[in-house]
Amino acid sequence: MIQQLWQQKTPDKLENEGLFHIPNENDQEFYARMEKLSAELSAIQDGSSDLMSFVQKGTPIPNKLRDAADKLTWEKYRFRAEWVPAWYSSEITGRLSAGITLVVDGILPMIFLHGSFMHRKRRMGYDAAETLAHELVHAARTVFPDSVYDEFFPCQIHQAKFRRYAGNIFRKWYLPMMLLGGIAAAPVLAAAGCSFWGVTLIAPLIVIAREFQLRRRIRNAADNLRNAGFDPMPVLLRMSDREIFETATMTREQLAAKKASSPRWQQFADCFPIKTKL
Chain-wide mean pLDDT for the chain? Predict the structure, then answer.
């Protein structure tokens, strides 16, 4: 019965709800995943879930904030993931985090925002709606393999330029440590008279070079998609790293051939045509 409910929805409706096919996933596998997800969500709703110890620690996020976050994800990526459960809980987020997404069995995302957002719109420079939208982007990509763009897509939601341009470096805890630690150590060692102080800058340079390479690849992929008639950001969000890298090197003719031969790419073309200004 649950599977039938998902099957009644058109592919574009599922895309709009943040329920994406992952690369090489057939319809049978997709609907089997939807059935498991529905069962988990139903169990949370009726209180029979094994996860109730987490749920009971939180306060449900109100519709007003969810609507504001849904507006942001729709404008940037053309989805509204209203099915993703979300709560306030400082106990689960911890003191330093504005929001987190926990993933159960690789299919069920659960979002928790810091409890201070219950009483104010901003905390430590983070906007409540942007933070929730950020986590919803994570939730929509839950089933994708680990990606070098894990923080790139969520961070594009934010108005702050620093988060949009530098946020992806925080996808792994050791990357900012390598960057900032090396930069901080260099002047200290130089002042101490160490002749090898410049060696400490190697790690930061590697991190910076890698981030520039990743930015260049996704920028090239976006340009190629735009030239081929696609709205790039919604399409890129629904891609794996391999697909992004391949798209970065494709011509308009190759993308047209891809659209003609692949139902997934045809769906991208139907759902996400390039935006035009009147």
Answer: 93
Shortest CA distance to 81 belongs to which of 109, 39, 42, 122? 109
CB 102 within 8 A of CB 87: no
- Cβ neighbours of residue 226 under 8 Å, at least 6 residues apart? 232, 274
Residues 6+ apart with CB under 8 A from 131: 98, 99, 113, 117
Residues in the chain: 278
Predicted confidence (pLDDT) per residue in 97-128, tens digit: 999 999 999 999 999 999 999 999 999 899 99
Distance CA 125, CA 172 (A): 21
247 or 13: whose pLDDT is higher?
A: 247
Q: How many angstroms separate the Cα of 139 from the Cα of each of 19, 28, 132?
A: 10, 22, 10
Query: What would the DSSP string read from start to end of the chain?
Result: -HHHHHHTS-HHHHHHTT-PPPTT--HHHHHHHHHHHHHHHHHHHHT--TTHHHHTTSEEPPHHHHHHHHHHHHHHHS---TTS-EEE-HHHH-SS-SEEEEEETTTEEEEEE-GGGGT-SEETTEEHHHHHHHHHHHHHTTTSPP-TTTTHHHHTT-S-HHHHHHGGGGGSTHHHHHHHHHHHHHHHHHHTT-TTGGGGGHHHHHHHHHHHHHHHHHHHHHHHHHHTTB-HHHHHHTS-HHHHHHHTT--HHHHHHHHHH-HHHHHHHHH-BPP---
**Hey, what are 83's tokens?**
């099915």
